[in-house]
Amino acid sequence: MKIAIVNDMPLAVEALRRALAFEPGHQVIWVAGNGAEAVQLCAENTPDLILMDLIMPVMDGVEATRRIMAENPCAIVIVTVDRQQNVHRVFEAMGHGALDVVDTPALGAGNAQEAAAPLLRKIMNIGWLIGGRSAQVPQAPSLHRNSASRQHLIAIGSSAGGPAALEILLKGLPRDFSAAIVLVQHVDQVFAAGMAEWLGSASGLNVRLAVEGEAPQAGTVLLAGTNHHIRLLKNGTLAYTAEPVNEIYRPSIDVFFESVANYWNGDAVGVLLTGMGRDGAQGLKLMRQQGYLTIAQDQKSSAVYGMPKAAAAIDAAMEIRPLDKIAPRLLEIFAR
Question: Distance (Å, rounded) from C-alpha 50 to C-alpha 253?
């Protein structure tokens, strides 16, 4: 894989070079010392993947991510030495299309290969994504919902560009919204709690991490909070599971959407937002086949038109809407 490094700290650059050297298939094609330099170099020689620092002179990683995804899009992973201190910047960068975030590998501390493993694992997963790996088709659901039930659920999936998209969507909903909401966003579990807090503060809604064994409830937005998949069980409660272990998307939107198609008793809407890859498309189609309304974000408003495009291609989405028109549609459906 052709990889670029954007970082103004020589020690961090060296740590990344040493980590990448453990995988012979990776080639560092250029190094930029700030975001502005990265934007220029990306236009001249677009890599498969950029390892992007956040805090840099001239232009920071957030603005550089925005510019690159608008002008010469490619996969971007945020690499930072202090994720917790920069949590809002991380979500802002992800809103512009960054796929993931990881700590800078420690240089000269303990086992170097073990220190490099988290970064190399994320790069491997992204390699599958940009290589076009097709999603596994879930089994067709065997159960049907009870149409007489008045429970309402909105199942939302998002990936690259998702944090910013979710902020806009949730801001369009009132605090007394009558439907339960469950969000599945591709984000590492160390950031999940911070993301829930950030979304709650930005939207004014009650947003928190989903707890094992609880049921979705009106007035609460639940965010999948671990690196395991989240699914709805037959008894209507939520559970975390490592299965399927071969899913590169963690948590998988397809896994959750499929469980909703199988087990939800009531009315539901599936919403698939911006993201790279195909996760969520097959699950959204299963929801449509069960008679649920399914919505995909349109190309113009998507930071990365991958997952919604995949859903549109297989006719999984009954409606394709701009991001700012999705919340009004949900209000129309679930008006008190």
Answer: 25
Strands (E) across the chain are located at 2-6, 27-32, 49-52, 75-80, 100-103, 152-158, 180-185, 207-209, 221-223, 229-232, 238-241, 267-272, 293-297, 319-321
| Active-site amino acid positions | 159, 186, 279
* CA atoms in the 13 A half-sphere facing the CB of 276: 27
Q: How would you classify the pairing of strands 229-232 and 238-241?
A: antiparallel
- Summarised one tens digit per residue, pLDDT across range 189-246 is 888 998 999 999 999 999 999 999 999 999 999 999 998 999 999 999 999 999 988 8
Whole-prediction pTM: 0.78
Please give the average per-residue pLDDT across 37-43, as a whole number: 97
DSSP labels, 91-154: HHHHHTT--EEEEPPPSSSS-HHHHHHHHHHHHHHHHHHHTTPPPPPPPPP-----TT---EEE
CA angle 69, 209, 333 (to 5 degrees): 75
Number of H helices, E strands in the chain: 11, 14
Q: How far apart are the first and last CA of the chain?
A: 52
Q: Half-sphere exposure of residue 160, counting CA atoms within 13 Å on the CB side? A: 29
Helices (H), 204-305: 253-263, 281-289
User: Distances from the Cα of 260 to the Cαs of 155, 233, 272, in angstroms?
Assistant: 8, 8, 14
pLDDT tens, residue by residue, 143-198:
344 433 468 999 999 998 899 999 999 999 999 999 999 999 988 888 899 899 99
Report how far residue 147's alpha carbon sits from residue 220's, in angstroms, rounded to the nearest whole number: 23
Which token pair is 117? Answer: 């493993």
Looking at the chain, the whole-number percentage of residues with pLDDT higher than 70 is 91
CA gap 208, 262 in Å, rounded? 25
* Contact residues for 318 (Cβ-Cβ < 8 A; gap 6+): 288, 293, 294, 295
Q: Are 77 and 102 in contact (CB under 8 A)?
A: yes
Closest of 198, 172, 178 to residue 322, by C-alpha: 172
What is residue 61's three-state secondary structure?
Answer: helix
